[in-house]
Amino acid sequence: MIEIVDRKKKTNINPEADYLENIKLMVFDMDGVLLKNRNSWDVIINRSMNKTTTGTGMQLTFDYIYQNGVPDRLYENLTETKIMTYLNLNDVTSNIARTIGYLKDRNIKTAIVSAGSHVFAGYLSELFGIDNFIGNEVNVKNHCFIKNVDPAKKDTNVKDIQSRYGISPAETVSVGDSYMDLSMRRRSKYFVAFNPGTRKLVDAADFVVNSTNLYGIIEKMAVHEIFNS
Predict the structure, then answer these.
(1) Which site in 98, 142, 154, 167 is 20 to 30 Å from 112, CA atoms measured?
(2) pTM to 2 decimals?
(3) What is the CATH number of the domain that holds 115?
(4) Rounded to 5 degrees, what are φ and ψ at 194?
(5) Any idea what the Cα angle at residue 220 is, between residues 216 and 224, rounded to 5°?
(6) Contact 206/192 with Cβ under 8 angstroms?
(7) Consecutive 10-residue runs of the chain (229 residues): their mean pLDDT?
């Protein structure tokens, strides 16, 4: 069941409006949006210890391991090659390919900005044809983590992507599931909360989509998809 909610300070959403008109870039968070779990680092660290995990734990967030590190013995299990094997394709949100294909047909660039794993983001980008991606990394040699994406300052990453393609905030949509993702809104015309984790995110978003299907975003933002779906 897909639900849509308008942002409180905005006018009511017009069901006959094409909100993707004049949009040139859509930026996705990864954990909780393109992947069903909300914390890829929880998955990776637990898998590196040969433990199973549901991917819903919040203790092993990137900020936590960035500040505290992990036991030295684990770094040999955190190479890019090994991290790649930790991604369970059953965890991928449904209809990513259809969503990205639709956006490509409209000449809308796509990107991933995630505090999750850069390796996971790169794999999804290659698999589904996403134009740009950035995530956080492990420096195995020096036993530390590299922060390319600050969860509270994702707008700086969005700005870099916009500059690369000559795209303005008024031509950008961002999609996230956590309150931290709202930092992308500072560089976006619209913010879509996809299966939001908090009420604050619902209240701040332009659109709220509760669905297991990523294509729900398209169905709610593109008017002809509403009438033809």
Answers:
(1) 142
(2) 0.90
(3) 3.40.50.1000
(4) -105, 115
(5) 110
(6) yes
(7) 40 77 97 95 93 61 93 96 95 97 97 98 98 98 97 96 98 96 96 93 94 95 64
d(CA 5, CA 95): 22
**What residue ranges in the chain does DSSP mark as E strands?**
25-28, 109-117, 132-139, 144-146, 172-176, 190-194, 207-209
Calpha distance 124→182 (Å, rounded): 22
Per the listing, tokens 């047909």 go with 105
Q: How far is CA 43 from CA 49, 50, 54, in A?
A: 10, 10, 7
Give the structural domain span for 189: 25-36+93-138+146-228
> What tokens does 132 get?
């740009």
Residue 207: inside a domain = yes
Specify the DSSP class assigned to residue 184: G
